[in-house]
Amino acid sequence: MYKIFDEFSDLPITNQQRYDLRHPNYMKEWKLNHPNYDKKYDKTHREQRNANKRIYRLRHPKIEKAHNLAKYHIPLGKMCQFGNCDATKNLNRCHLDYDYPLLVITMCQYHHNLIDRLYREND
Ligand SMILES: [Zn+2]
């Protein structure tokens, strides 16, 4: 498994991310204290979320097509390919350029967000 973005491995991270690193169990505890939250949210917001998805697909047909092509043709890697990250859970396919829909990198959710933010800032 080859790794990419080694040069970003010691990026300064945001206060929120620092907090998350220091309090890795925060979400677990929050879920224990709010046992019904997910269910309620699912029921009351499902239609809204589906509507948002539909709107997003209509607005970004190229992105939607790239996502579908990659999902269909490229198997998901076993590990995050970002720098020194060794996450094996919550993995996504990350597109660096939607002009090349089959060129994807396996990344954990955290590094996917990080890369998306970097790319958006550079636009
Ligand atoms: Zn990662």
Q: Can you characterise this structure?
A:
The protein contains five helices and two strands. It has 123 residues and is mainly alpha-helical. It has two domains: 46 residues; 62 residues, no CATH class. A hairpin with an 8-residue loop joins strand 1 and strand 2. The chain starts with 14 loop residues before the first helix and ends with a helix. Zinc ion (ZN) binds next to strand 2 and helix 5.
| Beta fraction | 5-15%
Overall mean confidence score, pLDDT: 80
Number of helices: 5
Give the overall silhouette: globular
Fraction of residues in helix: 40-55%
For the largest sheet, list the strands in their spatial order: 1-2
Small molecules (ligands, ions, cofactors) in the structure:
zinc ion
Measured on Cα atoms, how large is the radius of gyration? 17 Å
Structural class assignment = mainly alpha
Q: Which regions are unreliable across 5 or more consecutive residues at pLDDT < 50?
A: none
Q: Between the first and last Cα atoms, what is the distance in angstroms? A: 29 Å
Short key terms for the protein model shown above:
mainly alpha; 123 residues; 2 domains; binds zinc ion; two-stranded antiparallel sheet; 5 helices; 2 strands
